[in-house]
Amino acid sequence: MPNLTLEDVAKKAGVSRSTVSRVVNGFDSISEDVRNRVLKVIEETGYHPNAAARALASHRSKIIGLILPHSVSMLFTDPYYPHLLKGISQSCNQNQYTLAFFLFSSEEDEKVNFTSITSMGLLDGVLVQSDHFGKQRIVNHLLEAKMPHVVIGRPRQPEKVSFVDVDNVNGANNAVTHLVHLGYQRISTITGPLQSTVGIDRRDGYLNALKKHALGVDPELIEEGYFTEQSGYNAMQKLFSKNPDAVFAASDMMAFGAIRAIREHGLSIPEDIAVIGFDDIPLTPLSNLGLTTIHQPVNELGEQAVRLLLSIIENGTETPQNIVLKTRLIIRSTCGSDNLIDPQ
Amino acid sequence: MPNLTLEDVAKKAGVSRSTVSRVVNGFDSISEDVRNRVLKVIEETGYHPNAAARALASHRSKIIGLILPHSVSMLFTDPYYPHLLKGISQSCNQNQYTLAFFLFSSEEDEKVNFTSITSMGLLDGVLVQSDHFGKQRIVNHLLEAKMPHVVIGRPRQPEKVSFVDVDNVNGANNAVTHLVHLGYQRISTITGPLQSTVGIDRRDGYLNALKKHALGVDPELIEEGYFTEQSGYNAMQKLFSKNPDAVFAASDMMAFGAIRAIREHGLSIPEDIAVIGFDDIPLTPLSNLGLTTIHQPVNELGEQAVRLLLSIIENGTETPQNIVLKTRLIIRSTCGSDNLIDPQ
DNA sequence: CTGAAAGCGCTTACAG
DNA sequence: CTGAAAGCGCTTACAG
């Protein structure tokens, strides 16, 4: 079947091209009679409007981009990202938008390819994962280019841009409070990269919880990690000499690394050291190890990000909006508290 | 900066629109002098051609799609997919193509959204993950629509389409041969879904190895899994009564599930039961558990898939081509053979 | 080597 | 409620 055009459909239906266009786009100023005639021809011929022509004429491509800065490219295989992508993709499908995926593998790659993203005029808007290196280059560029965008994760300058995030400070606070309630005294933490807002926020939640319970903060109990399993392992190695009785890892992957280190060190969990993570990505082996953790609704985060972006694209920006989703404590066995009531 | 058009650039450079177009597209029939003048204006103004207009006029969008059928959507968070996506994305960046990502979450979703993929005229070609349900609906549709495509994983009818794959039969064969060389006698397997070609191929590799070594095949030692951790766990539960002394799991995730089952059962690895997997995705916790496994070059698979697709798009189809990548045995500790020489 | 012109397939004021 | 016409920003024969 050769590709049909509006013109072809118009001819067969005995109306003008404009009328067919209006029917296709659901305008309501069409008589029932004509609409049905056109619809029937479309049905019979299997006509589909050409995306490029539509984009050119209407200045809307119905394509949005997802940008993962190079600073997160090494982490892309962390279950967080596939789940996020799943939520985003689902939401795009539902809204008849196409998703363009950009994962930059290096700073070079990012520089070379990013400019074209905004200047090709191909995208109606973009979702950007918040940069782990604390740079705002991409976001600033988007602001300048007036490209509608939503940041995933708290941006550096939250006043200026729309974003979606989970409540990391509260989540971390709840994790540590859980440990406090169980009687742990020397609670250590393996943070995320402290250049990233997510790293900072989860550390702040840790600090808040300790302060609230009048448990002094020992800087020696804080080690920085990079969200990878290996960095969790390394950080835990350093913590042993500080004699922690519990550790809050800012991601499940790092918790997993910590667990590996603890076992290799000949200690047991939770008897010698309790472990609590952050993520609770479903279907991960981690959950099967009985890791007590903080659940974050990643799928929903992706969905909300799309929803917010589309509303900005369709209704204009106005003032930046943001959505912060709640987290939830999931008690399993690595803190030794299977029967405890959720203290939230 | 208001979006510039070819016309604007042409005016500033004192040439015609056609000439600017030729310079932008790297035609060689342009005098040095004129070319430089135009290039300078482009440089100064930061002109970028409009993607939609280009696509409309040239019938090339420079966008390719990646389609994940709904049958793999539950598995999308298996590390295999993010790694594949990473390879694909990298390759697209290098070749100045944009990647459109389609993950269908249900059969319904697939039906509703798939037709538009081929008829929007937005994509120059697509990469399709081979369907785990054994249907060829998508591939057949692509064939009919004459949309250039490359299947990832062996398709049902390999004669008709271009595809990239890893040598699953050999990989599985090597895994099982490794177990045979170590003296295991009752080697069981947890297969992938036997409706999928990858499930079939890895099982066939298992069968081949047993036959080659004159170790009769006991159907009771074969359990079907679905690539998930939980399915590996369940399959292992069923195998205990058959007294296997080793198990070849057709994916690392399933191997991980098997390991969990074995430990819960109070048995040890590899003393009571040896375990070997398939995947060896880097940075996965699995590798840190010392899982002996078959390495498959997923990143490269993605890169090759893109390369092949682009060559089909640019040079026409001719006869279907295919690329099959080698796998590699990675010896760690779950088969009790740290010192053994790779028998390949 | 370069330009004028047609055309890609739509949308959208403008009329009526 | 519907049509004729201009325009979106490119590419690409066709001439010269």
Our count of domains of chain A comes out at 3
CATH topology of the largest domain in chain A: Rossmann fold
The count of helical stretches of chain A stands at: 13
- Compressed to H and E, one letter per element, the order of chain A equals HHHHEHEHEHEEHEHEHEHEHEHEE
Please count the beta strands of chain A (DSSP E, at least 2 residues each): 12
Radius of gyration of chain A: 25 Å
First CA to last CA of chain A: what distance? 61 Å
- What is the CATH architecture annotation of the largest domain in chain A? 3-Layer(aba) Sandwich
What does this molecule look like?
2 copies of one chain form a homodimer. Chain A is α/β, with parallel strands linked by helices. Chain A has 3 domains: 6-49, Orthogonal Bundle (434 Repressor (Amino-terminal Domain)); 63-166 and 298-325, Response regulator (Rossmann fold, 3-Layer(aba) Sandwich), CATH 3.40.50; 168-296, Response regulator (Rossmann fold, 3-Layer(aba) Sandwich), CATH 3.40.50.2300. Chain A has 13 helices and 12 strands. In chain A, the strands form 3 sheets. Chain A has a 6-stranded parallel β-sheet, with helices on both faces. In chain A, strands 7-6-8-9 form a 4-stranded parallel β-sheet, with helices on both faces. In chain A, helix 8 (168-181) runs parallel beside helix 9 (197-212) and helix 10 (229-239) crosses helix 11 (252-264). The longest helix of chain A has 18 residues, at 298-315. The first copy, chain A, is elongated. Chains A and B meet through helix 4, helix 5, strand 2, helix 6 and helix 10 of A and helix 4, helix 5, strand 2, helix 6 and helix 10 of B. Strand 2 (98-103) of chain A pairs antiparallel with strand 2 of chain B, so a sheet runs across the interface. The structure holds a DNA duplex (16 and 16 nucleotides).
